[in-house]
Amino acid sequence: MIKDINGLHHVTSLASGAQSNNDFFTKTLGLRRVKKTVNFDAPDVYHLYYGDEVGTPGTVMTYFPFPNAAPGRKGTGEVGTTAFSVPKGSLTFWQERLGKHGVTGLETETRFGEKRLRFAGPDGDGFALVETGDDGRAPWTGNGVGADQAIRGFHSADMRLRDTGGSAELLRFMGYEELDRAEGVTRFHVPDGNEANVIDLVQVEAPRSDQGAGSVHHIAFSVDNREKQLAVRKALTDTGYQVTPVIDRDYFWAIYFRSPGGVLFEVATNEPGFDRDEDTAHLGEALKLPSQHEHLRPRLENGGLEPIHD
């Protein structure tokens, strides 16, 4: 069994527009944009990262905004809901705030004793805010949300699956333990992991999902460093998973493999971090390009990328 997974590192999704995506995460949810770069494989598409002050692993939501992308179709084999942790007693604030910002799909519920507020992102993305009383992570408060209400980082992610058996077995192999079951949901967590250490497997009868705007592209799990990442990779390949070689993503190293339920998993290092090429005070301000795409800067900065007005 793997012992080196801490919990979530980041979640990466698809969007239909950069400006609307940026406004939602910074002006509505109050997160900080910690990096503005481009897709390694499609440099005419942004890769935008939002999180806490420094983009701590377990807080970072990332997006590929493909201009005018068609909406995804919800179904099985996908991450259906990405949930963020907020302080106890703050859901009333958030319900009012999200309503004033025109956010749709607002619905309160309780899962495993925790109060949740579900809502939709600009492209129909599935999100929830979960009240937690013991999340000690320092929030980002630079975008107008106070410390008593601000998002701390991820709480969990839901995987919508027709059959949860294979994914449950994989999570156990990755060091997760089953916590509870109720109403078709099985909750797993990493004991002594980071605060973003919960995965809910949701069994549903539905057609397979199709990715598009509003869909989660992949979900990434955190390891401390490259040495531990290599150990995780060996354990997965020895078990029969087809895992990519290690890929340098500038701000972390990554490996990828497909889970039994169809969700694309990544294992990402906590090093070197988002401050490797910008100081903390100015994270996310300048367009940062991977070295292989630096020659494209004039074109990208002069119409090749949708302008983002902060």
Automatic annotation (TrEMBL):
Keyword Transport present in the record's keywords: the answer is: no
* Coiled-coil parts of chain: none
The UniProt record lists the VOC domain at 7-132, 153-270
Q: Does the keyword Oxidoreductase apply?
A: yes
Q: Name one Pfam family in it.
A: Glyoxalase
Q: Which UniProt keywords apply?
A: Dioxygenase, Oxidoreductase
Put simply, this protein is called Ring-cleaving dioxygenase
Query: To which species is this protein native?
Result: Thalassococcus profundi
**What are the leading ranks of the lineage?**
Bacteria, Pseudomonadati, Pseudomonadota, Alphaproteobacteria, Rhodobacterales
